[in-house]
Amino acid sequence: MSDMQIVNGLTGLLIITSLLVVVTRKPSHSAAFYALQSLVLVAVFVSLASAIGSVQLYSWAAVAFVTKVVLVPAIMIRSFGNLADEKLGGGARISPALTVVLAACVVLLCSLIVSAVTLPAAQAVKPALAISLAHFFFGLTCIVTQRNILKQVFGYCLMENGSHLTLALLAGNAPELVEIGITTDAVFAVVIMVVMARQINRKLATLDADQLTNLKG
């Protein structure tokens, strides 16, 4: 099996882990599945680096491991892991079965879109490119369909993973500074959103977005 086939195969696992992040009820479990997804993403970077001979992608893999596999899940679990389930508040607006159906439709649509791409760099990784594009919409789906604010934060993380993978597939020889900038922005964004969620929970004793409909002055 060639390195490019490994890359395309590994990205298939990203779909499964994304669905687990979205449909799992407890944010601590979502954090664990996000860490697993990020570990798969690191493996994709390493396989892609071997396939195209990119030293930079090895650095991307190392940075992604520290930030996505370790740091972001640790922030989420440490900040909210001690909350009781009833205080987390909010479930999904649609059923898990419908979520899976929507995900399948998104993957099919993205595959059709990517099939029309004629860039030389994309020819060998079109399945992976379709999944990276679908990841952006997976994250958007998570934000729209989940009432729990923490799950919405994970939706942002899924969108960021999709964008990160797209950049690696199409510009794997980009300087390490690009990777550092992307991951730094992502970590700071997660920290800011977690701080805001903690303030909301402290003042209103809920993380259910549907209950945050009234302005109080």
Question: What's the arrangement of secondary structure elements?
Answer:
Layout: H1 3-23, H2 27-52, H3 55-80, H4 85-88, H5 96-115, H6 126-145, H7 149-170, H8 176-204
Describe the structure.
The structure is a single chain. By secondary structure, this protein is an all-alpha fold. The chain has one domain (3-208). The chain is built from 8 helices and no strands. Helix 1 runs antiparallel to helix 5 and helix 5 (96-115) runs antiparallel to helix 6. The radius of gyration is 18 Å and the shape is globular.
Question: How many extended strands?
Answer: 0
Query: What is the average of the pLDDT values?
Result: 82
Number of structural units classed as domains: 1
Please tally the helical runs, counting DSSP H or I stretches of 4 or more residues: 8
What is the molecular shape?
globular
Could you list the spans in which at least 5 consecutive residues all have pLDDT below 50? none
Along the chain, the helix and strand elements come as HHHHHHHH
The percent range for helix content is over 70%
Distance between the termini: 62 Å
Radius of gyration: 18 Å
The biggest beta sheet, please? Answer: none
Q: Return the structural class.
A: mainly alpha
> What percent of residues are in strands?
under 5%
How would you sum up this structure in a few lines?
The chain is an all-alpha fold.
Characteristic terms for this protein:
217 residues, mainly alpha, globular
